[in-house]
Amino acid sequence: MGPTRIGIRHLRYTIAVADAGGFRSAAEALNIAQPAVSKTIQDTEKDLGFAIFLRAAGVFEITDAGRVFLDDARLTLATFERTIRASRQNELGARGHIIVGYSALATSAQISAGLDRFHKRYPGCQVEMHVMSTDAMM
């Protein structure tokens, strides 16, 4: 068995077929032609070396191996989508980690008000606070 050609599209289509209970319904949900869904699933099964779905006249079932594959496919897709969201948030400055140095002379009200505004704008960013001398902050 050689390297796999299975990608995110294959996972999305396979999950859509399972969730929709069939190829036609999955194609409608994905807003693509049904033959494209069927071909993608066939390619996926060929690459995997096992059937994900049993197809017979009027019967549609997920195989045992298909259930295992789908469980992991869902986790993989969720992780992939979370990674994309986090990367986009990071690029926009909405995620990350910053270290803020502040003077011992700053009041807690000043610090608190500033942190509140910052956290509202960047809720995914961790802030680490350190009391520092003015010289150390430069």
Describe the structure.
The protein folds into 2 domains: 8-89, Orthogonal Bundle (Arc Repressor Mutant, subunit A); 95-137. The protein has a two-stranded antiparallel ribbon with strand order 1-2. 59% of the residues lie in helices and 17% in strands. The chain is α+β, with helices and mostly antiparallel strands. The protein is rod-shaped. The protein has 6 helices and 4 strands, in the order H-H-H-E-E-H-E-H-E-H. A hairpin with a 2-residue loop joins strand 1 and strand 2 (59-62).
Brief characterization of the structure:
The protein is an alpha+beta fold and 138 residues long.
Q: What's the layout of helices and strands?
A:
Blueprint: H1 8-20, H2 23-30, H3 34-48, E1 53-56, E2 59-62, H4 64-91, E3 95-102, H5 108-121, E4 124-131, H6 134-137
Parallel strand pairs: 3-4
Antiparallel strand pairs: 1-2
Helix pairs in contact: 1-2, 1-3, 1-4, 2-3
Q: Outline, from the CA principal axes?
A: rod-shaped
The Rg value, from CA coordinates, equals 25 Å
Give the termini separation: 59 Å
Overall mean pLDDT stands at: 86
What's the CATH topology name of the largest domain? Arc Repressor Mutant, subunit A
Number of individual domains: 2
Question: Can you identify the CATH superfamily of the largest domain?
Answer: Winged helix-like DNA-binding domain superfamily/Winged helix DNA-binding domain
Which second-level CATH architecture of the largest domain applies?
Orthogonal Bundle
Listing every helix as H and every strand as E from the N terminus to the C terminus, the arrangement reads HHHEEHEHEH
Structural class, from secondary structure content? Answer: alpha+beta
What's the total helix number? Answer: 6
CATH level 1 class label of the largest domain:
Mainly Alpha
Spatial order of the strands forming the largest sheet:
1-2
